[in-house]
Fold this protein.
Amino acid sequence: MNKNYYAIIMAGGIGSRFWPISRTSHPKQFIDILGTGKTLIQNTYDRFLKVCPKENIFVVTNENYTDLVKNQLPDMSDNQILTEPVMRNTAPCVAYGCFKIESINPDAAIVVAPSDHLILDEAAFVATIEKSLKTATDNNSLITLGIKPSRPDTGYGYIQYTEKTINKDFHKVKTFTEKPTLEIAKTFIQSGDFLWNAGIFVWSAKAIIKAFEQYLPEMNDIFAEARPHYNTDSEKTHVNQAYMQCTNISIDYGIMEKADNVYVLPSEFGWSDLGTWASIYELADKDYVGNAVIPAEKVIMYDSSNCMVNVPNDKLVILQGLHDYIVVESNNTLLICPRDQEQNVKKVVADVKQQFGTKYI
């Protein structure tokens, strides 16, 4: 196993689209949302154990989730859990993790990935990451993984690539497009040179820090100034001060869309970003009329089909005459809504917060 390979797991989100199961105090990355016996962050950590030594895996999360990380990933030392005092999107998160790793090992090659994705083909994933780490090291490039699209999905970002390649398989990126309309997504699929943006990045420490210097110079200066404090007792104090000065910006918008050394590797490893209940429904086991029930111990359904049901183990639930619905109960909160209207959940959460405060959020 290559000692220069490192992983950063981004685990600071609140997963509001999975409310009421995912809550601010216990978001979806810390939940066994698929009923596999392991939480999403535990599965992500286990995957990276196959890529790099366990001491080379770091988690960046909100400081409120420190104990959750420690409980679910007991092998991680305090120095491997990087805490953010406030949410500032992905660019500061990446800067913090990469500057810290660079101070430990200037020759590091780093993969950065979200904590809440599903990967069905782990062997293909590990091979893809290792290939990308080597290519990033050898070519001083910023690499992102693109998923070959199976449908014109409006919930994903898209990456357009050119015929220019390095190592034959890594294509020069032409454009990034945020979530498009259905008509535009259809044209993307038909053109054949677009991929879904998986939000997984690979680069050398040197290359990403050079990119920060060039494209986000103010943020670069903030984290560069903290160099004497990384991996010391004063790290947290200085990083907290750094975050208060950072703009709220994504790594995609801040660097990847601007840099001229960005390459994408078309990939297939059974990926889903588990962004919505619809994505959970697609992946879950279903009965002969299309109902997905997690867990199914005390749920009885009559004349009901194509429903996504997630309720507590100890609750007896009877559903009759319900078709194409989401039924979710958790934390003394019950949500029932049509499957095709689940995009309204974020608005519901905002309304609940306004009417009842943060008790149910």
Observations:
- The first strand starts at residue 5 and ends at 10.
